[in-house]
Each structure stands twice: as C-alpha cells, then as structure tokens.
Amino acid sequence: MAEFVLISVIRSLNELLVNEGKHIPELRGWVEIILMKLRQLQSILQIAESRQETDEGARNWIAETRELAYDIEDHLLQAISTKKESSIFKKYAHVAHLDPKLHIIEAKISALESDLRVRSLKPRTSPVSRRTRNQRRTYPHQVEEDYVGSDKDIEDLVGKLVKPDNERIYQVVSITGMGGIGKTTMAKKIYHHSNIRSHFDSFAWACVSQHWQKEDVLQRILNKLEPAKKKEISSMKEDELVEELVEVQERKRCLIVLDDVWETDVWDVLGPAFHIRRGCSRVLLTTRNKENARYVDMDAPCYLYEQRHLNEKESWELLKKKLYRGLNIEGISLDRNQSSGGSVGEHEYSSGSEDDDDVASTGESFHSCLTDEDEDENLSRVSSSRSEDDIRHQNNHMDMEKLGKEMVGQCGGLPLAIIVLSGLLITKSTINEWRIVHQNFNSYLRKGRNSREYGRVHEVLALSYNDLPYQLKPCFLYLGNFPEDSKIPTRKLYQLWAAEGFISQESQHTDDEEHYIMDIAERYLAELVQRCMVEVRVDESSGRFKYCQLHDLTRELCLIKGKEENFLKKIPQRYEPEIIIGSPSSSAVAKSFSVTRRLSVAINDDFGRNFPPKMESLEHVRSALFFSRMSERMNLQHAFEFLCTESRLLRVLDLERFDFGEKLPRGIGNLVHLKYLSLRGSRFYKLPSSVGNLKYLQTLDLRIPLLVCLTIPNVIWKMKHLKHLYLPPSHKCSSKLDLSTLTKLEILKNFDIRVSDHRDIPKLTKLRKLKSILSLGTENLAAIINCLKMENSHIKNSSFRVRYDFQSGRELTVLQQLTGFNHLHKLDLVGIINRLPEHFHFAKGLKKLTLRGSRLRDNPMATLEKLPNLYSLILRNNVFEGNEILCSAQGFPKLRILEVQGMSSLENWIVGEKAMPNLSRLTIDECVNLRMVPEGIRYIGTVRELVIANMPDGFTRRVQKVQEGEEGGDDIYKVEHITTIMITKTSGSYMQKMESRLSGNFKSPIFQSIYPSVIPKQWQNSRRSM
Length: 1026
Prior knowledge:
6 domains, 5-stranded parallel beta sheet, alpha/beta
C-alpha cells in the first residue's frame, strides 16, 4: 500500500511540474530533487513491505515513508494555491514561510535514508521490475453463487415455509451459523426456489446488519411488496409503516427475508410489523447468533435451522467449482490438449510465465484438479510411452491437487474462506507459486489461532489482500467508505478511483486503441472479482458490471486494513473491528499517525454532534463522502461551508441527496483541487459562478431532482480537465452554455440543445457516451444529426430523448436519420409519429427503445420485432391506436423487458409461438380494453416476472391464484410457469400526475409550469390557450 502511495505522489508531482511549473519557478529545482529521492525510496519499499508482517521496525519505516509522501504533496498544493491567490508581496512572503516546511521534509527524507542503513534495507541497483499478470480483457456475462451442501436441507426449509408442519405452523424460519458459513447463500437459494415463487404472491429482501434504522428497513420491505405505492410509503411515519406492512401481509401471501440480524432488539422493534392475525405470510431470517432465533421463537412460532460446516468432500468440490468458473471467466481453455493461453475477443494473453522450467499451465493443471473422482484416480497412471515432459506435468498436477486439498482442509469447512482461497489460487499458474501460497497460508493460519471463532476466514482474507498487486490495494480499501450492505454503482466507483489517483494509464501498452480511465478501472474491479474479494452484479443489457458489494467479513478486513494503513476515518466510528490480523502492533503504528486523509460520514440524527469531529484538524482531508439513509433530505449547509473553509486540499466531495436551500455556497470555489464533485439528488436552485474555479474537475454530477430547474452560470468551459459531465434533467443558463473547450470529455449526460449549442459536440473529440434531450424544429434537428455524423466523432454510445411530432415527409426523413446512428443504444421518442421507419433504418446496436404518445395506426411490432439486439421495449400512452397487435414467431430475438401501458383501444394481443424467446419481465398497465393475457405467453419459459397494473377486475381475475383446492382464473395455465406475478392498482390522482410527468403529456399545464425551458415551440401555442 505504501508503495502505491509513493508511486501516486511521484506521478502527482510530475503532473504539478507540467501543469503548474510557471507558478512555482523558485520551487521547481527543489521538487526535482525530492522526486529523485522518492524514486530511490520506492526501490526499497518492496523489500520493506515483504518484512512488515514480522518486523515492527519495517512497519514503522513504511508508515513514516507513506505519511511523508502525503505531506510533500500537501505542502506543494498549499504553496501553489496560496501563491496563485496572493499579490506579489504576499507571494514572496509565502515562499519564506514555506521554506521551513521544505527543510523539515528534507530532514525527514535524510532520516529515512539513514534508517535504511541501520535496518539493512538496501536499494536495488536497477529499477524495480516485477512480472505483472496481464489484466483481464473481458468480463463475465453472468456471476452466480456456487452452492455446495445438502439440497435436502433446502427442500425441508422450503417445505416449512410453503405448507404447515404436521404439528406446528411456523411463521418464521431462522438460519443460524457463524460468519462466512453460507447463510445468505442458502437463503437466496430458498428465496428463488420454484415452489416458493409459485406459493407466495409478493417478496421482499432486507439486509438488517449492525447499523440499521427501523424506518429504512420497513420502507425497503414495503417498496418491494407494493412498488406502485413508493411515493406514499416514503411519506409514512413509523407507526403507519407498521400498520401498512401488517395489512399487506394479511391481504397477500408474502415472503420477507431479514438478512444478517445481529441483535435481539431487532425483533423487539420490527416484530410488531409481523404480528399478523390471518394470512399465510412468512419470514425467513438469517443470523450469526442462535440466541436471536430463540428469542424470536418466544414471540412467534419459529423453526431454527443451524447451518453446518462443509465436510472434506464438499469443501474440495466447492474449490473445484470456483476454480473452474474462474477459468471460464478468464477464457482459459480447460482442454488439456490445448495451450494455456486463451483468447478473449480481439485480445490474447498468456496465463503463465515462460521463464519457469517446471511450469504447469493454469488451464492444464487446474483441469487435473477439476475432474471427477474416477478421473482423479487415473491421474496416477502414467503411461510408459509418455515423454519426460508429460511425466513432469503429471507430477505437477498431482502436487497441485495435494496442496489444494491441504489448504482447503485448513479452511474449516467455511465456504467464504474456500471461495477467497480459490480467488488467490486462480492467479497462480505454476506449481512453485502454489507452494508459496501453501507456505504463506499455513503461516497466516498460525497467527490467527487466537482470534475469534471465524479467524480462519479473516486470515485467508488477509493473505489474499497481501497478495494483491500494489495498485489494487487502495482500490479495495476504498470500498470501506461505503455503508454496510451498500450496492456500489460501478461507474461511480471508477470515477472515484480515478479522482483519487488510483488508476494509471502508464501500464497500458497497446498500439491499436486508446485506453480510457474507465476501461482500466473496470479491469481493476474485474481482477478483484476474480480474486473473490468483491461480489458483483452484471447489467444484462451490456454484460458489464452494474454494481458491486462486499461480504460483511470482507468489509471487516477492509476497515481493519484501512485503519492500519491510516487510509480512512469513518464518522461516527460506532464499530471498531476487534480481529487482529498480522502483527499486534499494527494498530499501534496506525494510531501514531493521526492525520485524517479520507472521511466517510454517515448521516443520522446525531450528525450535528459528530461533525466536525472534535479535537481534530481536517486540513489534510483529501476525500469526503457523505451517506444518508434518512427518508428526508438533511440540510448540510453548515458542514459544506466548514469543508470549503477548512479542507482546501479536497480531491473528492460526494454529497448526494441533501438539501442546500436556494443556492450552493460560494465557498465551493475554494476547493480548487477538486477532481470529483457529486451533488446528485440534492436540492438547490442555483449554482454559484465560483464553481468555475474548479479547473481540475474530472467528474461533475449535477443530476438534481426532476422537478427542480437549476440555474447554471456559463463557467463550465473553464473546467478543461472534465471527463464526465452530468447535467440536470432540467436546467437553464442566461446565455448558451459553452462546452466547446472540454476536449477531454468522455461522458456527457442530459445535453439539452435549448440550453447548450449543438455545434460544440464535434469539438468534444474524446466524447464516447452522449445522452441528449432534443426538442427543436426540424431544421435544427437535422443540423444536430449532421454534427453527430461527422467522421471525427469518437462516440460509441448515444442516447436521445426526442420531444417532437414526426408527421410530415421531411420530419419522417429526419427521424429515419436519427434512428440510423451506428452508435445509437437508447432512444426515447415523445410525440406523434405517423409511421415508424423500416427496421433496416434502425441502428443494429439499439438496445432500449421507449415510445410515448406515438398514436401509430399500424402495428408497431411488425417493425420492432425485427431489431436484432433490442433488449428493452417500453410503449406508453397510446403508442398504437388499433385494436390488435401481433408479435410474430421468431420475433424479438433478444428482448428481455417489455412494457405495454395506456393502449386504451387495444383489445386483442397475439403472441406467436417462439416469439420473444428471452423475455424476462412483462408489464401490462392500463390497457383497459385488453381481454386477456396473450396465449403465446405460456410458451415463453424465460419469463420470471409478470406485472399487471391498473387493469380491470375481469382481466386480473383471469390470472389470480385462489386458495388451495380451488380452481384458478381462466388464464392461470398461461402464467403458471412465471415465478412472480404482481397485481397492482394506483389511485387516479397519482396516475394523472405520473402521466403528465412520464407518459409524454407535455401539453399539460402542470408540466409546462415546471419545465418552461424544454417545451417544443410547436406546443407553445397550446400552452397559451390552456
């Protein structure tokens, strides 16, 4: 970790010399000398870090070096900031003031160099060179959880939930066991079991964890059980939430999972919400503490299941599964007759080293470990006709299997420990590397013998952490910023990593393409996933990571190591991990360095008493992330102003979903070193012009609430380092918002041609992703299209929301040009369309299409079903005015999500056999004359969820389940294979509001009063006449 800090500071100082050299001419020579000395220290850090587990002196030296590197960077940044703000007189006065600090830094470096001789840590004579494994080039399309254990146990627990026991009806089923034993994995298997899905009507999953809030947990459960009432639920008080939850459970059969319950007081507080007098709703609970389950049983009938440890055979089976999956993710062939290298897409790489004499390639060696038992026995039979190389490889295979079984046997049957071990082994391609892991593994386990009950998991995690390449360690520790059980959006994480300086383009050497920071960051996360340090979910439409999570024990490691490395401070610090990993004095070393560099602040009712922290300076804080799970936006004006005054070295400031009143404080302009600023979801109406001082910003996120129109000063053009700009959905500027100078911009969201100049787009030569709002006349739309078609465009992914009526021949020609962009991935068309372009005029890469208020006369499915990559199709507010639509056989080959809403004249819907073969979610909403669910739905086995909203009672009765022993509705046979069927109704007043906001009714006075800047000119007359 210290090695990374040093490399990062060296990189930062080099950038300072390039970007700010003219401001510090008298310091330039000194900076160059310091850089030379830091590079010398860098060559020794690897040696010191290899000794730190057993050498307290090495640990102290590393910590001092790390803090000194930070101090050097801080002092120079302060010098630059002060001098640029000062007059000539003050400028030279400040240099005199800075000189003593520079002398102190020189003295500290000399002391560290002297200490090297005492500790016999000699610098290498040549630059540091290590063999680094190539980063992954592709990403898995599916990340599943492996389960090894008794399927009979799962079936028994499912039976307890879906039908009463002969002697007792259990309202609660509790799974208990120590951390890392697989409670949550088992609960997920039960939650998605086909019998569970067919028995219950509604489902909810809530992680409770250590730091939970009653209101938050109840809201999350109700939002899952009644998604149509989210707005009403958000305004309910606690007692109203309890009453609503009881009423829902009595009205419908609900399965509610309370995952990771720590204390008995959880049931004291939440229990009344599950005291149902009638109905068949159930609760599935997971907890580490058996007493919690027994406590629940005193209040409600509870079946207690104690999760057992895996036996030796199951443990080895799990390791093999994870290694096999890791190889598939890597793209390495498991065919023992093929080479170890694998090709993925257009990139090729080798999985091993060419220098080792006894290399057993990852693919070949693992294959031997992944065979069935009969094959395992055959491994010992070596044919006499084989060459010596074959015999050596065979011996290596057997040795790797022996080492693997010994290590997995030391994991104590804990699935998490085995999974993390697999992530470590998958990165090792030779028998020698496996032997080193085995040796280190035993050493770590000996250290952890005195730690608490699941110490083995922590020691395996610690070994995996220490094995991480230096550039991945800060990326992993950064995840500790986020609250427990957080689903961390990956794009946000990548941008945070980049702003912190964790992502380097220097290691990427390719001749055929330019590597972007976000691509490199994604590869970093992919390696953490491969090493089983991080869990991820994949966006099915793109195949890329959507969000990531930490297991609670992995998060504990994050917090422990973050504390040891003085990496992060959490406010309030309510939880201090007790496990000691490594040397007992590690925490003592951390405490000797009290300077806070990174803050993670959890907002609660005590926030005013906890922030700013007492008796502690925040002068050196580099990042501050604020998190709130409170339903109301808290006013952070005071905290914001404090940071703007006291923490001027901030690089990262994340303030999402807070209230700043009318205007963001002008003090934001003091934070001139900011690289990341997110105000997403926060409420304020005016951005101060001082934001133009933030010229180093890489990410600016201004996606404030939909109903707030933000006034933006025309200063964004000054932020010439911007890479990611997220404008508000509704915004205005006194003049055209100039973006022409943002030549490094890669992502631009909510670009509105009524506020910004479309002619700026061709000047953004690195722009890769564009989301734009278009609502001008035909000529202007045509001009914009011509700009986007220019040959020098780097755009790879574009998304448009177009508010316009396409009726004349000229207008339809423009629409045809718009739909034909090669880079078009998402299109939202709002307004009347006389006819759709032919399918061959649509971009082949189009994945998401939304039509609102189109009033088409011809069946739109005839065209849309031929789009080869369409993933999501949403049709709202009278898209089609006919009475019958047809989805032909073989149509919509990749469609996963289909929503049909507000087709008031639709009576009959025909779905051909083998149409929509990949459909997963179907929504039928407010099609008041539709008679029945299409017959063809019964043949689509992939449908997992059916939502029926605001439909007549006669329609809903056809698909509703009734009590056991009675016949269901007439259409039950069409939908009985669907695991989740949700039937909802929304009140008329709420629907009217949503219709005006979301369904394309932009002529509504309500909408026009909120969004005057985005109403198309052709609709202005109708506005005045209303």
